[in-house]
TrEMBL record, chain A:
This is ABC transporter. The chain crosses the membrane at residues 21-41, 330-350, 371-397, 417-437, 444-466, 508-532. Residues 91-129 are annotated as: Disordered. GO terms for molecular function: ABC-type transporter activity. GO terms for cellular component: plasma membrane. Keywords: Membrane, Transmembrane, Transmembrane helix.
From TrEMBL, chain B:
It comes from Parafrankia soli. The chain crosses the membrane at residues 54-75, 96-126, 132-155, 162-182, 217-239. The keyword Transmembrane applies. Keywords: Membrane, Transmembrane, Transmembrane helix. This is ABC transporter permease. It comes from the Bacteria.
Amino acid sequence: MNAFGQVLRAEFTKFRTVRGWVVAAVAAAGATILLGLLPGMQGSCGRNGPGSECAPTLGPGGEVVVDSFAFAHRPLTGDGSITVRVTSLTSRLLDPGPDGPPPDDGSPHEASAREAATPGASPRGSRPAVVPWSKAGLILKAGTAQSSSYAAVLVTGGHGVRMQYDYTHDRAGTPGTVSTDSPRWLRLTRTGDTVAGAESPDGTTWTTVGSVRLAGLPPTVEAGLFTTSPQHAERVGGSLGAGTTGGPTEATGTFDHLLVRDEARSAGAPGQVARPAWEGENVGMPGPAPQVPGGDLERAGGVFTVTGSGDIAPAVAGAAGIGVSLARTLAGTFVMLLVVTVVSTGFITAEYRCGLIRTTLTASPRRGRLLAAKAVVVGAVAFVTGLVAAAVAVVLGQRVLRGNGVYVHPATTPTELRVIVGTAALLAVAAVLALGLGTLLRRGVTAVATAVAVIVLPYLLAMTVLPDGAARWLLRVSPAAAFALQQTATQYPQVANLYTPANGYFPLAPWAGFGVLAGWAALALGTAAVLLRRRSA
Amino acid sequence: MRSALHAEWTKLRTSPGTLGLALAVIVSTVGSSAAVAAATGCAPGGCGQDLTRLSLTGVQVGQAVVAVLAVLVIGDEYSTGMVRVTLTALPRRTTVLAAKAVVVAGVVAVTAVPAVLGSLTVGWFILPGHEVVPRAAVGSVLYLVLIGLLGLGTATAARNPAAASGIVLGLLYVFPIIAQVVTDPGWRRHLQQAGPMSAGLAVQATGDVDAVPIGPWQGLGVLTLWALAALLTGGLLLARHDA
């Protein structure tokens, strides 16, 4: 056996024969698993008989989407175009009462929202509000089934004119809000597989917002007017008792000057074929139907309104979205991090405390090698226990959550692997950082407190008390940045949500966050190696 | 008791780390309060946050140093074997622990006053225009004193300073994170009411007191129970066990 192997073996023996450390490591892994399985969350998926299962709605790109809106539509065969003028878009917040609409999924935020809303004693009903991503406009959709392919040109409550298609794509048009003084003309034109969206301030000069190719669009599509308005969410408190509040919103769009040009029909005998009937429908919306005009809207030629609630967008986890992300099952990582930090610091400070370090350095005079062996031992122990705990928590935790009727956003297998291995790596590198700090400071209690303050505290502060800006800054520079490895949710600019760390959205990319922690660990271990060589033990 | 107090005060005063740790309490508290206040960056008086509480965020960092200071008061004696000399000189062990508790409480109180006042002043300069509630200031000082006693009790029970500081910091920081994770509102509330840090810091709330899981003074009461339990356990083990 070579020299390094011998030192390694000696260090591992030291670790495994201290009963407190082994017990602490096993107990921490157990606690992590337990917190992942803790059935502290209840949902309504599958609880209200058949039909209430929260089956994921997958869009054309394979991502989970929400697709619910009020739709006044008629079939459109072949090429054609539809034009309308939007004169207003207003939104209201709907106060969910105890007998109000049931939560989609029993997500925690809804529960806390209700709790936070109760003492406020707000009047039942609704109040006007600006919902930035409320939408009204034209849509051309493969069918009225949810999650089918579409292209839409629309006005929003606060983001101007947009062209959106197939849920995840969003292009900006002219900014500004719509009103009777400054109405917006919108037009969608289909030519084969291509759909072009255009806008105009007056109905004569048109600007193209976007032109997209929707592969596999059927010959006959449903074209018409739609209105929808997403969940709103805001943060209340901002301190230890912090929570989020939110609820459904509803938007009303006012339209006139509706005109449909149907190439297939005009090519035939005009006037011979009856114009297709308009139908009103609420796509993917439960509950009482908002007003959607039916009948012959083109002949009516007048002004009509469409009122709807929901969203046509990728689904997000968190306050304004539905369900939770995978990271929820790994909430117990924090406990392991704390234990790993304390044990790894103690792995070297205990030697200083009882003078064993002099024996160790006599037996293995090459100090750099000794430190490396210690780092390998604590890192490997943390990695293995972390890997087991994370794997069990993720795999079983998802089952428990789903069994409780909570909607968990599906993640691909590579993402799941990244989360599990990443959590183990995070613990391993944190252990090395703690070891470095222990070697630098030598005195057990000071080292433990410093390591906890450097490694554990930033995460805690960012998750619980800090306002969003400060929390994001802390999660960029502190070792807690590595928790970005647990992020599975995607952030979409066109979906309003609380993209806060507490909801599982981190400011850095997963491996970039890990890099920050690795940098801290390398710095601590490097300095420790230099000082260990220079100082007398 | 008087001579015990005098002895403990002399030990603490002449121990090399004490002054540095006391300064560290002040610097870390005021510094992190200032950093948080600066990073908040909201319109003066109008960001919908409890600004008094925000400017006292540093207490959550400073308490770690307070805990370390308290742990060292007895932990170091166990490390060096000094505890045997102490107990030979003063065989009544409860008196020793009581004297240590008084000295720790006094030193922490003297350190906490400038730390809390400094935080509030800095917070007031960065985010001017909010009302400073005296209860939050007095409560924060008392909170730190109780954290000190909790640390002393735990260290007496655990006898190993590193393990003791790990336990105290774990007690403080694990409850809020678990409460963050537990999503059942009832359970979350109970955890926040039971945790030494989340309950004790309720005393800092000034705005919407109803939104806080526990009343300000009741919360401090919960922390007092934790500190008493730690001191009693420590005292019992000290009286029964071989040092």
